[in-house]
Amino acid sequence: MKESKIFLFIIAFILVVSSLNAQYFGRNKVQYETFDFKVMHTEHFTIYFYPQEEEAAMIAARMAERWYSRYSRLLNHALRGSQPIILYSSATHFQQTTAVPGFLGEGTGGVTLSTHRQIVLPLGASLAETDHVIGHELVHAFQFDITGQDHPTEIIGSPSALNLPLWFMEGMAEYLSLGPVDPNTAMWMHDALYRKDLPAIKKLENSKYFPYRYGQALWAYIVGKEGDAQVGKILNGVGKRGDVTE
User: What is the predicted pLDDT for the residue at 151?
Assistant: First the structure.
């Protein structure tokens, strides 16, 4: 149920982000607290946090730099400019953010905006949860940067990463942040196999196939056969064409 809620939100957010900007123009989210944000700079990140979470923000910064080191090598790409991350200490604080247009559901663990690549997330209940969300969202930042989404004046008429299917985008983010072996995804695939309902790639855009799990499994299969280097090659190729079927 939780993953279904996340899926519905991601569809609404990614596909109609422009509409949300218009829909909520002139409206204010209810903000119960005022956050006195400070700024921390690392080699590749600009991290916004408030003083009571400074120690956790320093840990998150180290996590982000570790993910960056891995992704930049794997995808053969360096992000343009300093990557912004906006940290909140809890989900309730995160839901008050004005950085993200529209309202955030309880199941949303983090968001990466296609414009300017801002990553916005709450600190998780555990270090492992926070590490996973940072890793997942940073994949999206690389996806948007590689396909040029944060440089609109350079991409007029070019394909958009936002037009790529969710199984491609979210599956890649889950694969790169969790790895090829994940008990949750294994459970989904075992159930699909038991029901004799393992879909062909062209069917994965059907909303009945949860893109996080099926997409992660497909990326694990591709990389298992072709090697890690294929992730960057495929992303670059698909990003230029805007079509995963070619």
Answer: 53
CATH for 2-154?
A: 3.40.30.160
Instruction: Write down the pLDDT at residue 129.
Output: 95
Q: Measuring CA to CA, how many Å separate 41 from each of 62, 81, 206?
A: 11, 12, 41
Q: Is 40 exposed, middle or buried (0-12, 13-18, 19+ CB in 10 A)?
A: middle
Residue 157 region by backbone torsions, left for phi larger than 0, else alpha for psi between -120 and 50, else beta = left
Q: Where in the chain is the domain with CATH 3.40.30.160?
A: 2-154
User: For position 126, what pLDDT does the model report?
Assistant: 94
Q: Which residues of the chain have pLDDT under 50?
A: 1, 5, 7-9, 11-26, 150, 153-159
Q: What pTM was computed for the model? A: 0.82
Residue 92 to residue 82: CA distance in whole angstroms: 27
β-pairing verdict for 83-88 and 45-49: parallel
